[in-house]
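Researcher: Please translate sequence to structure tokens.
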Amino acid sequence: MNKIKPEEEIQDEETRIRRENEENYILKGYFRFAKERYKICMECEAFSKIVKACGECYCFMPAKVIIKSTSCPVGKWGAVDEQESNTIPP
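Model: Translation complete:
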């Protein structure tokens, strides 16, 4: 079994923490736009609160709002630009 040198262990730990921070940053942005979309849907007259579906496209909105490439059938929200939403902080 190879021993890990202390400087390698620190680098690996730093790399792990950086990756976790990057993932959390992406996820926060991802869920932020989904929450914003869903809020718009809940205020729409076509939204059915009982089944959580859109009366225009008949989609189950908790699922649809998290898919970046989807858009509202009546134009209340659009697709999310992949490059903008996946920027990693320095």
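Researcher: Any highlights?
Model: Residues 85-90 have pLDDT under 50 and may be disordered.
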